[in-house]
Amino acid sequence: SSDLATGDEEEDKDYKGPTPLELLDPLFKQSSCSYRIESYWTYEVCHGRHIRQYHEEKETGQKLNIQEYFLGNMIKKNPVTEPTDMKQDGTEKKSERIHSKNIEGLDRKST
Hints:
Order of helices and strands: HHEEEE
Strand content: 15-25%
Strand order of the largest sheet: 1-2-3-4
């Protein structure tokens, strides 16, 4: 057996099982969504499509008012027309940092 604490990663190179994407593919094909309902916000994860945070308000006799934020959208790449994130030597390209911006009134700390 491999001891990862010593940095022995030889077994990882010999892995022939499914990739993470292959393991998740059935979720993407089902077009299913998972929900987490909190006191104010509802979080929706639609596998392979998007992650959304929303709040619905409906007052008697009025239309439904939805406040929503998309926290992420999945864009599928076509491997034929779009290059992969791999260099010619087989190593991954270095990822770029995406800068974020704090928006006044939104507290990202968990309560």
